[in-house]
Amino acid sequence: MLIEEIEKELEAEPKTYSREELIGLGIDPDLFVFITTTNNDFTCNPYALWKYICENTKYKTIWHIRNGDVYNFLKKKDIDCVLRGTKEAQNILQKARYIIHNYRYPDKKQEGQVIVNLWHGSGFKAHDFALSNDVKILEKTKKFAEQDDLFCVQNMTDKLYLAAILFCDTRKIQVTGQARQDCINIAKGKENIARVIPEIKKYKKLILFPPTFRRSSYSRVGNYFKENLFGLPNFNGEVLDKLLEEHSAAIVVKLHPLEDNNFKLQDIAFSKHCYLVKERDLLYTDLQTSDILNAFDVMIGDYSSLIYDYLILDRPIIFNVPDKDEYSQKQGFTFHDIDYWMPGEKIFTFNSLLTAIETALTNPEKYRKERREIIGHRYDFNDNNAAKRCLEAIENFKPMIDVGRRYYIENELLPIAQKYEEELSKICPEKYPPRIIEKIIPKEHIRMQHLERAFVKKGFDFEKIKGKVYFMNTKIKHYLAEQDYTDLDVKNWNNFETTMQNEHIPVIVPNPYFQEIALEFRKNNVHLIEGGVDFDFFENSNIEMPENIKKIIAQRKPIIGYTGEISGKIYFSLVQYLCDYFKDYNFIFIGDNITKWDFWKLYPNLFLLEPVEFEYIPPIIKSFSICLIPYFHEAKQRIPIKLFEYLACGKPVVSSEMPNIVKYNVLQGASHMEFVKQVEYAMEIKDNQEFITKQKKIAKQFDWSLTVEKITKELL
């Protein structure tokens, strides 16, 4: 009977919804929500489709924005948008009929919704199933792809490749062209780029250089920025200047969105005729990258997907690939014969760059035959109607039967639904043995461990304290509707929601971000307690140093260190840059490494050490010359406990641009080179007794005993 029930479920036609049924589910049938899930907000293919829908239909549109500055900018322009992490954003995501994104939609799909992935490029780089062997990463990739109902891609080759790298059903992928390419041929590129860089008008020829993000958050590929922006040996800026002046030409650098906020023009300038354009420069001028592409006479590219956007113009492309072999080994390419798919001069030296620029400016017809051949392969459409076809594909979407749930077992085709596995294992355990699922028992939040230690030290029963005070220490994934939330997250949400309804219970939050969330649910009895440290323990600790640290100290080099969890919150690109720049310094990262990446082995001055017992942390920090907090993206909003531990040891702290901790005498770098300068300055002041005293004085104000006193005397 059970098998028949499973058969019936799998043979059932997928559910379609009438307008009335959608409304009954709380879904607005006319609402499109747009999210740029790759890098910057309000860009790429979602932007192009949004613009088309606004200009040609009566659908409702709302942007789901992650960055507060972009959100405020759009609000001033009367563009409907919500800020991620707010209750308003949660409600909008649950109401949308169509959610449009361009890589991985992170939230949980609601019944009646259609998730549309417009993808984010059509380039050379391998990724996901074509790149990683990490089972957890691949399972997550597949989970994201399974939630997408429809993909819109540039060509048939991309359709097949995308199905392979995401391990998804090809029937979900429609060839429509990329919406962002519709304006490339028709935009007023020269006028547009002059709005961003007014002095560019004095040049007759423009060259665009958009280097790809070679150094990702987790991997090291190529020598990007190590010596010069091109990574070419024997580079000579004066010689390049002379060539550019002969042709009245300038080079405009367009960094990858993940990096353009971490570099400034003075960091990368290789010529007095070099200019830098950033995503935000374009955004605040009401422009997209596609709006400026046809301003350029030549592109110097490497592996960026922007090459295949520019290719549609049939203009010269120079391929700057001095690290091609290394890139192929570390990152990998989409195509086997990569040279064929690069229709232009390949350069590996500075002299070849000069020759290629000269040829491209004086003989743009060279490689035209090769370019047009690749254009024929890469563009199934070239009519500026990709956005229109995307919308038609969305409007005509019909759900499909998921044939992927059938699979072979012992040469017998037997349909099995995952939810019946437990019952089948009971009926026939020898044929359907129960799967062993590793249960992960979450660790108590580190802040709570410290608080418990402090309360016990003062003679309090911490369990009773937790019954009277709500400590908001973890992101409420269920509240954000994130896709990967667990039963534990649901429990956290239920506790949170119940607590918020009782304003007599004090709520303690560790940073302003959590404070904003809490204040959406109640206006009173929310208390910000930013950090803490057992000051006496850190200042007076005299425990002997671990042997592995002693060996590093014995090298008699300055040590720049980090303690704590090593995860995606760390900006590894910055760490790699520092290791390259400060070759005579040692870098120690000590803690639980959950990244599974092995780039650490590439740097002789970078040491990744196993976590140690808490009692060893004070002497380890004291061995550092400088302490780091190199956080990335959302983690920049945090106020980490380690900050106060660093301060208690009197150490200079250098961090990414983290607005909530700058007031604690933290040196911050908004760009890679600013970070370098702050490290250099920290080395100058690290032994200054007045500075050390100031650091310790700040830390002492956050002793856990004072936090215990505040909670017990003021809040209970």
Describe this structure as you would to a colleague.
This protein has 716 residues and is of the alpha/beta class. It folds into four domains: 12-181, CDP-glycerol glycerophosphotransferase, N-terminal domain (Rossmann fold, 3-Layer(aba) Sandwich), CATH 3.40.50; 189-383, CDP-glycerol glycerophosphotransferase, C-terminal domain (Rossmann fold, 3-Layer(aba) Sandwich); 446-528, no CATH class; 535-701, 3-Layer(aba) Sandwich (Rossmann fold), CATH 3.40.50.2000. It is 38% helix and 14% strand. The chain is built from 30 helices and 24 strands. A seven-stranded parallel sheet has the order 3-2-1-4-5-6-7, sandwiched between helices. Strands 10-9-8-11-12-13 form a six-stranded parallel sheet. Strands 21-20-19-22-23-24 form a six-stranded parallel sheet, sandwiched between helices.
Summarize the model shown.
Helices cover 38% and strands 14% of the residues.
